[in-house]
Amino acid sequence: MKNNKPIVDVDQVLATIDRTLKEIREGLKPEELTAAERAEVSEGFMKVIVQAHKLKLKIKIDLLAAKQPGLSPRKAVVKLLSTLPEDLPASAISELAGYAAKEWESRMGMVAA
């Protein structure tokens, strides 16, 4: 039986996410917005950034689980968080750390079952 699943280039998916975030960031013109609009756009954009990083982490979790399935949750989270940009606010890093830990434990639970 033939496998009809499309082949996905993970690096291309990750690059597309990065490129899209960059285009959004460059498309914003804060000088044309009021302070209230800037705050609203900034908050909304941060939500988009966090969601994009969650998607990237999910892909990286799958790759890491395939390469190093025996990693402890702490080591996995540290390794995964090291791939995040340094300019993320602490609140985003905290949310992403929790997400990575939960996803890693969930993934490892599926492997063990």
Concise summary:
This protein is mostly helical and 113 residues long. The chain has helices at residues 10-27, 35-67, 73-81, 90-112.
Q: What does this molecule look like?
A:
There is one protein chain. The chain is mostly helical. It has one domain (10-112). It is built from four helices and no strands. The chain has helices at 10-27, 35-67, 73-81, 90-112. The longest helix is centred in the middle third of the chain and has 33 residues, at 35-67. It is globular and about 50 Å long. The two termini are 27 Å apart.
Mean pLDDT: 87
The counted number of beta strands is: 0
- State which percent range the strand residues make up: under 5%
Alpha carbon gyration radius: 17 Å
Q: Which runs of at least 5 residues are low in confidence (pLDDT < 50)?
A: none
Roughly how many Å apart are the termini?
Answer: 27 Å
Q: Structural class of the secondary structure composition?
A: mainly alpha
Give a topology summary.
Elements: H1 10-27, H2 35-67, H3 73-81, H4 90-112
Helix pairs in contact: 1-2, 2-4, 3-4
List keywords for this structure.
single chain; 113 residues; mainly alpha; 4 helices; 73% helix; globular
